[in-house]
Amino acid sequence: MNFENKVVIVTGAAGGIGKEVVRKLANGNAKVVLVDLNEDAIKSVQSELGLTEANSLVVKADVSNEENVKNYVDQTISKFGRIDGFVNNAGVEGPAKPLEEITEKEFDFVYGINVKGVLFGLKYVLPVMKEQKSGSIVNTSSVAGLIGSPSMVLYNSSKHAVMGINKVAAAEAAAYNVRVNTVNPGVINTQMMRKIEANVAPDAAEAARTAYNDAVPMKRYGEPEEVANVIAFLLSDEASYVSSSSYTVDGGLYNV
């Protein structure tokens, strides 16, 4: 897809899906802003993908911190003058434990990144796009935002929150020609899934992976680039009449 002269922010750009989104955008000639808490990792992605100072910007940010979010938006405007796309992708899986064992610290950590990070990103990106009267936003939720999974209450409920935030943002932005959608990955072959497997079954992570794999009708994990392909479509002009929608990328795992 052609993203020539488009400026796109990607949070969680050092992660499995984030990196593949950056790759897809770079291949489409976009100017990409890579945002992540791990600055060394996003610099490595920038170097690996052959991005230059002219067509990319690296910003270290804790997305749960409102000032950090405002800063990555301000830096984007300062360097590139506009924002055409926003991939609101940063997220964490949280602990795997029964609901009654969840601590306030764990709640604050997961909701800080998965919910506050999404909301703050929209808070500062939407005004820019509304003023431009153009733009496309993709919020990364999860199939976990559509169901309830035992022992994953923080991850599940935070992704449900993303779905609700997305609907409100889409309704508020539509009159300004700004589109807002979610992509909901299933079991994807990323480091996050390795952590989930280990958290769910500390002594049998490989068995957990096999069980997840077998539960998918396609009988395999998805690859990060398969999610990136859908995100790129939603960012592109090819999806010009698509908003407030939810796209599952899960091999048919959850037919809801």
From TrEMBL:
<dbReference type="InterPro" id="IPR020904">
    <property type="entry name" value="Sc_DH/Rdtase_CS"/>
</dbReference>
<protein>
    <submittedName>
        <fullName>SDR family NAD(P)-dependent oxidoreductase</fullName>
        <ecNumber>1.1.1.-</ecNumber>
    </submittedName>
</protein>
<dbReference type="GO" id="GO:0016491">
    <property type="term" value="F:oxidoreductase activity"/>
</dbReference>
<dbReference type="Pfam" id="PF13561">
    <property type="entry name" value="adh_short_C2"/>
</dbReference>
<comment type="similarity">
    <text>Belongs to the short-chain dehydrogenases/reductases (SDR) family.</text>
</comment>
<dbReference type="InterPro" id="IPR036291">
    <property type="entry name" value="NAD(P)-bd_dom_sf"/>
</dbReference>
<dbReference type="InterPro" id="IPR002347">
    <property type="entry name" value="SDR_fam"/>
</dbReference>
<keyword id="KW-0560">Oxidoreductase</keyword>
